[in-house]
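Review this chain:
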Amino acid sequence: MQGAVDTVMEALMMGVPLARAEFLDSKSINAVRSRSAIDELSFHDRPCLFLEFHGTELQVNEQKSQVKNIAESYGLIGQFLMATREEDRFKLWKARHAALYAIQQVKPDSRCVITDVCVPISKITSCISETLSDTETTGVFGPLFGKHISIP
């Protein structure tokens, strides 16, 4: 989790123009895997970072290379899938779009409380870490997923 957040933060600080960045923790991914049809991508039981780049093919390839190097420097090794066709992008983003509904199905008799935070970029890693710790110590089932939409 920390590496994913730090990857996005460093990419933004280096001026990589991320069009969209979203994160799903292990609980969210597991809910999606068990409750949705995302088998075509074989997501693993670990957090996932979804990124979208915009630009020419050359620009997107450069952005992908930069972010991949940053991710590897934080120890993030694994699948790095890229899609350029609309239908392939839809498949990649399917897990993120299914997350809320899949999480609600994990405990069908409970209710979902959706919250949002606004913190300085320098504090986002500690905010997420503290929230994960709070959910673990209180026993609250609290999957985390979130997004960042374009910083101009």
User: Anything to note?
Assistant: The mean pLDDT is 79. The beta strands are 18-24, 48-53, 145-149. The chain has one domain: 2-149. The first strand starts at residue 18 and ends at 24.
